[in-house]
Design goal:
9-stranded mixed sheet, alpha/beta, 3 domains
Length: about 575
């Protein structure tokens, strides 16, 4: 009888713009020791996915790591898994860019490791139905989503010990269900508990396989896990125990599992991600209610998959800054698509267009677009890096379009897709987005010579965890937990800084307030400024590349206050 199999697909990622010292620590505490332990256990086989930004950094900073990885690929222990090069949320970028992202990572892996990937990791497991055809058309044979995707579609947990076919418009891809039970067992519970789960699964599903897909960073980077996995030897013990079970358990790669096992059937998923992500994307009041509701149903696990939160694109509604960044990316992508239709084929043009395309793809890295336990919308260095890449790509595209050394143009359009027109001014030196309906403010300003954005602040707004900050001491309990179960603070007293902005943090917002106000009122957001002047609708009185003028009458509300 065929042995029961365990399929591990481990994912490693660092975002565009992350600090070198952060990557260096992750390398030393997780990426390197994990590979060293794996090399000592030749019967342990798995799929490994590294995002493009991380691979580029490793190639530059630690090329010897590639030698170790190539050796594991050659002896069949590791299958390299593809995905989008700069780890975009595929459903959020244009179809042409999806294919380019997937192709670039596949080309890179083939060049450096001698094999073209058969599978693809989907960033944050964000799924929409059209992803099946996106992957299939890009040459991807399989991918992985969470069991949550299956359970929310009506599958039973007992049906998830194998893989399924997912199809869109006649294009099919195989999909492996990553089991949440294994994600929470490995490496946070004892090795005997994990092996007990696997023995039970083997008895119930002879000849099948169980899949776990999760982050490599949980082995060393997440709080407390380096000591747990390496100093205390959890990972060594786990791999040794897996090898000792070779009489009934085999370790295989995801690609080999898909080839060796026929699909269990078809699967159709709604828009989904992992459970926590769908909660994070909800507006804060709705998220609080959703969290209470899931608590009420915690004793009914069979019902929980049908309590669904929001969608990943909900972050564009929840955070105006994320939406503006996303629409900037789409605007730049459209300009590059137009360049792709050009008949120019001179070397300088092609090189510049290629550089612009790379910068655009870098600007699609997902982390700066969202916020949860992970995500980096609140991290200014990540937002700066993505904005800078998009500014660079657009400056190249505009330069190639105009050809002149100096140029300027202006257009009126609904740039951020909010139903109201903005004014977009571009030139060889800057790109500026003016919002007449939001106080006549400047919501984006790129300075093109160094390719930097000059407006990059995030409005202070309520978040669900702020209530915990008000009640939680800085010291936390001991023990190793999943990062989803932890609440950590850097210092006591953070709750005193929980003030929230009235308006988006755009430039040139006019704040008119009474003489009795002072800087303490400003810090506490208690200036009581006139709303019509601060965020009202301004009339456009001039609209040329050289001059944009806006005007607003003083509000009746403010005149009443002055009397």
């Amino acid at each position: 009888m065929r042995k029961f199999e365990l399929v591990l697909l481990i994912h490693a990622h660092q975002p565009v713009g992350n600090f070198d010292d952060v990557l260096e620590r992750a390398y030393a505490t997780s990426y390197l020791p994990f590979l060293e332990v794996l090399a000592r256990h030749p019967l342990v086989r798995m799929g490994l996915h590294y995002s493009g930004p991380l691979l580029e950094w490793i190639e530059r900073a630690h090329p010897e790591y590639f030698d170790r990885l190539r050796a594991l690929v050659r002896n069949g222990q590791v299958e390299m898994v593809g995905g989008g090069f700069y780890e975009p949320i595929l459903v959020s970028i244009p179809p042409e860019d999806r294919r380019e992202q997937i192709t670039r990572l596949a080309d890179y892996i083939e060049k450096h490791f001698g094999t073209r990937p058969r599978g693809a990791w989907i960033a944050e497991r964000v799924w929409e139905p059209q992803i099946a055809s996106t992957l299939a058309r890009a040459g991807v044979a399989y991918t992985l989503v969470d069991d949550n995707h299956f359970l929310g579609s009506g599958f039973e947990l007992e049906q998830l010990y194998g893989h399924y076919v997912c199809e869109d418009l006649g294009h099919a891809v195989r999909v492996l269900p990553g089991l949440k039970s294994l994600r929470y067992l490995i490496p946070f519970r004892s090795v005997p508990e994990t092996m007990e789960f696997l023995r039970g699964a083997a008895a119930a599903h002879p000849g099948g396989f169980a899949t776990m897909g999760d982050d490599l960073e949980k082995f060393g980077v997440w709080p407390g896990t380096h000591e747990h996995c390496f100093r205390d030897g959890w990972l060594e013990h786990f791999f040794s125990t897996l090898e000792q079970g070779a009489d009934w358990l085999a370790l295989t790669t995801p690609g080999d599992a898909v080839v060796a096992h026929p699909p269990l059937g078809r699967a159709e998923f709604p828009t989904a991600s992992y459970t926590e992500m769908m909660e994070w994307s909800l507006p804060t009041p709705a998220r609080d209610r959703y969290h209470l509701l899931t608590g009420e149903f915690s004793s009914r696990p069979e019902a929980l998959p049908f309590l669904r939160g929001g969608t990943w694109k909900g972050f564009f509604t929840k955070y105006a800054e994320s939406n503006l960044l996303h629409k900037k990316m789409l605007h730049v992508s459209k300009k590059l698509q137009h360049l792709g239709e050009s008949r120019r084929r001179d070397k300088a043009f092609l090189q510049a267009r290629e550089e612009a395309a790379t910068q655009l793809l870098r600007g699609q890295c997902n982390d700066a677009y969202w916020h949860g336990v992970f995500g980096g919308l609140y991290s200014p260095h990540l937002r700066t890096a993505v904005w800078g890449s998009l500014a660079h790509a657009e400056a190249i595209a505009d330069g190639l379009t105009h050809r002149k050394q100096q140029y300027a143009e202006v257009e009126r359009l609904d740039f951020d897709a909010d139903g109201r027109d903005e004014i977009y001014v571009t030139s060889d030196r800057y790109a500026a987005l003016i919002d007449p309906d939001d106080g006549g403010t400047l919501s984006a300003l790129d300075f093109r010579p160094p390719n930097v954005t000059l407006i990059n602040s995030l409005a202070r707004r309520p978040e669900s965890y702020h209530a915990k900050l008000r009640n939680l001491p800085a010291s936390q309990g001991h023990g190793v937990q999943s990062i989803h179960d932890q609440v950590r603070t850097k210092e006591e007293g953070l709750e005193r800084w929980l003030h929230y902005d009235r308006w988006p943090r755009n430039s040139f917002r006019l704040l008119l307030f009474g003489r009795d106000k002072n800087y303490q009122d400003s810090g506490a957001v208690q200036l009581e400024e006139d709303a019509a002047l601060a965020a009202g609708r301004y009339q456009v009185t001039a609209f040329t590349p050289e001059r944009v003028a806006l005007a607003s009458e003083e509000s009746a509300d403010w005149r009443a206050k002055r009397r």
